[in-house]
Amino acid sequence: MNLFDLIRRPHAFFEALQLLPPVPWRYAWLPAVAGLAGGVSGTLLSRAILESQAQSLPGLPLGVLYALAIILSVVVSLLTWLALWGMGQLGAGHSGRSGEVYAASFLAPLLWSLVLAALALLLPPQVNVAAPSLSGLTGQELIAAVQKYSSAVTAQYALSPVVRFSGVMNYAIYLVQFWLAYIGLRVMTEGAGKSGGAQTDPVQAATVQTPAIQTPAARNTPAARAWRGVLYPGALFLLLGAAALLIGSAAAGLMGGLA
């Protein structure tokens, strides 16, 4: 079974995977490698931002800041996989094998990160902001000067074509990842229904065995369960994203008030 079949022939890939024994961590290395590649490509793309931030952290070498950004990317990628696994299993049931399906779907962001790294090397964002002279500045004056410089760098950085393109592509890759996950969850649940015979998915057992709370059959079809396996984690990340935006806006307003 070729992993790249996931991109070329996702249905065939998951049909072959469905024949193998369930091993949730079978592709656990993919989120880790995708996080590593994403950290490297993101660091290459945002070098100007990191360099401006390094000025506000005296004594911290820039290389350490790069390493921290990459390590954080790996950790976030693994935590994201775990969240997708848990919410996907909640929606699609154990037969959806969401751990394997979502781990395999990280192939899409991994490939995009490799492309982005090449773009960042060939077409780095052009930021032409003169670094301020910080000699003699202390306290609030120093903080204000560093914040002004970082804001100017960030503003120019955001206008770069490669940064704008990467922002759009990041959202597109998320959609591709969920599309692959939907195909995988549907193939897995369909295969479990064909091969399981009278066996019942534990997550759906209460629905099937308890007449008092029985749901319509349409809600337990492979397609419906696959949709739930995608929509549940999708809704979770939308809520987390909205919360992050609110917290970021509040923090920015607080820093502006202090300055």
Question: What's this model, at a glance?
Answer:
The protein has 259 residues and is an all-alpha fold. The chain is built from eleven helices and no strands. About 5% of the residues have low confidence.
Q: In words, what does this structure look like?
A:
The chain has 259 residues and is mainly alpha-helical. It is 74% helix and 0% strand. It has eleven helices and no strands. The protein has helices at residues 5-8, 10-18, 29-45, 47-54, 62-92, 98-105, 107-122, 139-158, 161-196, 205-209, 222-258. Helix 2 (10-18) packs across helix 9 (161-196), helix 6 runs antiparallel to helix 9 (161-196) and helix 9 packs antiparallel against helix 11. The longest helix has 37 residues, at 222-258. The radius of gyration is 23 Å and the shape is elongated. Mean pLDDT is 82; it is low at 202-214.
Q: How many strands appear in the DSSP assignment?
A: 0
Unreliably modeled segments = 202-214
Percent helix range: over 70%
Give the helix/strand class.
mainly alpha
Distance between the termini: 58 Å
Element-level helix/strand string: HHHHHHHHHHH
Beta percentage is under 5%
The global form is: elongated
Radius of gyration: 23 Å
Query: Count of helices?
Result: 11
